[in-house]
Amino acid sequence: QRAKMRNLLLSRERHLAVPSPPSWSASAPSSRTGSASEAVKLTIDPASRVVYVGGGAEVVGVELGSQRVVLRSAVAGEVVAVQYVAEFEAVCVATDGETPVMVARIDRGWDAFDPLQHHGNDRVDDNDEHGEEKQQGNDDAVGVREMDFVPGGVRGMAWSPDQELCAIVSGDQSVMLMTKDGDVIYDEPLPESDDSDGYAGAVSWRGDGQYFVCMFARNRFAVYNRNCQLQSSVVQQDMSQHLAWRPEGSLVASTVKRRVGHRTKHEVVFFERNGLRHGEFALLEPECTVTGLRWNADSELLAVGVHTDKAASVQVWHRNNYHWYLKQDLPCPAGTSFEWDPENPMQLVTCSITNDDDGSSSSGITLRSFDFCWDIDVAPCESRCITHSVAVVDGARLRVTPLARKVVPPPMSANEICLSDNASRTLLPADVSFSASGHIAVTCHSANDHGGVAQRARELLVYESVEQQRNSNVPVDLRSRNSLAVPGDNGNALRLLTWCDDSVLLLVQSGAALHAPDALIEVQLSADLMAIVGYKRVECPPDVNVIRLYSRAKRHGYVAVQLSDGRVLKYIRGKSALGLVGAFPTPCPVFCLAEMAGVTTMFGLDLHSRLYVDQTLISPQCLSFSTHMHPNFVAFTVGGRQNAMFLLDLTKTLQENIEQRASPQS
C-alpha cells in the first residue's frame, strides 16, 4: 500500500533572469482568444539545455546552465507556437502570418539546412548592420528558413513525436500536414462550424505519433490520423481552448467550466479518441481560468496553469487508484508559461515576463526550473509506539494512516487533516515531515491570497502526534500555526522540510541568483511547539544545489544534506560549517543513511532506477528501497525479469552481502 502513498517533493529550484525584447508584454490576456493565456510560448532543447521563448514578434534562446542568450531573432507576425526540432538543431516558429519559419544559430545547426534542397528560401537574418561579421562565427548569427505557405496564417501548430510531420491549423479553416522539409503533403478542410472566427487552434499529438487532435472552434475539436483522415469530431459545451494528449495512453485532456445550480464547477475532463468522455476531476478554485495543460514525458503528471483575480499558479496533478491528487502548487505571476522537459519527466520549466514600472513594455524574462522526486513521508521507527504512519498530500488535505494498526486503501485514509483555516482561504501543503515523537509538521501557502507573488511554503503548521493515539479514527488536532519570517528571504521557494530534533526544523531556500548558494534555514520552536523562537541561516557551497535532506538527529545528532553533484554533507545544529559524509557517483534524490557492520553507509536511488551503496552499484533496475521494515535489514525491490525483493543484512559488510547474494545457496 505504501508504494501508492507517495508524495511529490520539490528537490531543486533554479532561476535566472535576462532582458526581454521591449515589444513583449507581461499581460495575461491574449488578443486572439480574449481569455487569459500564457504570455509567451516555450520549447526546450534537452541536449544543450536551451529554453527558446517566443513572444510578440521575436524568439529568444537562453541556456539554463549559464544564463547566456544564445539566440535572438525577429519574425514576421505575432508568435503563435514554437517547437524545437532536434534533427535540424533549430526551433520552428509559427506566427499569425502565412509562413512558418525555422530559426537556427549558424554555429550550431545551420549546416543541416541545404539551400539546394529547400526551394532557395534560406536566408541569414541578423538584424544588424554588421551582418557580415556575425556570419563569420559570432554566436548571435541566426539563420532563418521559410517553410511552405499557410493561407490565412497559423492558428495552431505541433510537430509529431518523431518530428517527421508538422500539423497546422490554418486561418482559412483547414488542417495541414507538412514534412520536416517544409512541404505540405495534406491539406484538408476542417468540419464546418459557425463559431470559428478568431479562435486559437490548439494541436496535440498522441505519444506514438499515429493521431493528433486539434481545436478548430469554440467547444469543438477533431481527431485526425497520420494521413490527415478525420477520425472523430466532438462537441463539448463550455470547453476551454486547451488540449493535451496523454503521451502513454488514449486520453485527451481539456477543461470545462459550467454552472451547476448556483455554483460554478471547473473540471479537467478526459476524452477518448472516438470522442467519448472518460473521467474528470474538479479544480479547487471553480472561478479560475486555466491558462495551459501539459503532460510530462512519462504521463504520470499533469501540469495545469491556473489564474484567478487574486492569484496564479502552476498545479501538478497525479492519478492513482482512479483518484486525482493535487501534489504541488507553484505560485507564479499571471501569464506564466510552462513546459515539461521532453526527456526528464521530473523537471518543469516556467517563464514569466515582468513589465516596466509604467506597464508599457516588458523589462525581463524570468526562467525557473523545478526538479521533483517521489518519496514516502513515513513516521520514523525511533519512537516506542511504532505505527508506521504515512501522510499523503491530496490538495488542501493531508491523509494520514497508521499502517501498523489499520490498512486503508488509497485514496481513503484513517485520518484526514483539512489544512484550510476558513472557508474563504485554501491552504495547500508544500512539504510534510514526521518528528521522532510523531508530530506532523507541514509547510503550506494560501492558494487564493498571495497576489501572484511567488511565496511558496510561508506558513508552518504543527499537528499533534499520531503515534500515541490508540484510536486511529480520532481527528488529528492542530498544535500551532505560525508564519515563516525567514532571515534574508529572497522570495524563492522553501522546500525539503525535515526535523532536526523534537523542537527544531530544517528547510532549504535557493540562492537569489543562478550560481548563488542555497541556504539551510533552521527554525527553532518553543518546547511546547506553539511558537517560533528563532532562526539560523547557513550558506551551502556555491555552484551546486541541495536536492535532499535526511535527518539522523535522534541517534547521531546531525542532518545529512545531499548536493546536486552527489556529495553528502553533515549539518550539526548550531554550527555553520558543513562536514563531508561521502559522495554518490550520481545524484540520488531518494537516499538514507544506516549503520552497516558498524560503519555509517549511504543508500541512494537515482532517477534512472540505479541503487547505490556508497560508490557501489547494487542494482540497475531498482524500483524502491526501505530501511523501515526491520532494524537489521534494508529491503529493495527489482523490476524487469526478476520482479523480486532482496534484503541487505546490516550486520554484515557490503562485500559479505554481495558474496552471499552471488552464492548458489542464496
Q: How many helices in DSSP terms?
A: 3
- Which residues sit in consecutive blocks of at least 5 with pLDDT less than 50? 27-35, 109-139
What structural class results from the helix and strand content?
Answer: mainly beta
Shape: globular
Cα-to-Cα separation, first versus last residue: 28 Å
Mean pLDDT score, rounded?
83
- By DSSP, the count of extended strands is 52
The helix fraction, in percent, is: under 10%
Strand content: over 45%
Radius of gyration: 26 Å
Strand order of the main beta sheet, please? 6-7-8-10-9
Q: Please describe the biggest sheet, giving its number of strands, its sense, and whether it closes into a barrel.
A: 5 strands, antiparallel
Provide structural commentary:
- This protein has 666 residues and is an all-beta fold.
- Helix content is 3%, strand content 49%.
For the structure shown, list the relevant keywords:
single chain; 666 residues; four-stranded antiparallel sheet; 3 helices; 3% helix
Short description:
With 666 residues, the chain is an all-beta fold.
SSE arrangement:
Layout: E1 7-18, E2 41-45, E3 50-55, E4 58-63, E5 69-74, E6 79-85, E7 90-95, E8 101-105, E9 122-124, H1 131-135, E10 142-146, E11 154-159, E12 165-170, E13 174-179, E14 184-189, E15 203-205, E16 211-217, E17 220-225, E18 230-235, E19 244-245, E20 252-260, E21 263-271, E22 277-282, E23 289-295, E24 301-307, E25 312-320, E26 323-331, E27 337-340, E28 347-355, E29 362-375, E30 377-378, E31 389-394, E32 397-402, E33 415-418, E34 427-434, E35 440-446, E36 459-463, E37 478-483, E38 494-501, E39 504-509, E40 519-525, E41 532-539, E42 546-551, H2 553-556, E43 559-563, E44 567-571, E45 579-583, E46 590-596, E47 599-605, E48 611-613, E49 616-619, E50 622-630, E51 633-638, E52 644-649, H3 654-662
Antiparallel strand pairs: 1-29, 2-3, 3-4, 4-5, 6-7, 7-8, 8-10, 9-10, 11-12, 12-13, 13-14, 15-16, 16-17, 17-18, 19-20, 20-21, 21-22, 23-24, 24-25, 25-26, 27-28, 28-29, 30-31, 31-32, 32-33, 34-35, 35-36, 36-37, 38-39, 39-40, 40-41, 42-43, 43-44, 44-45, 46-47, 47-48, 48-49, 50-51, 51-52
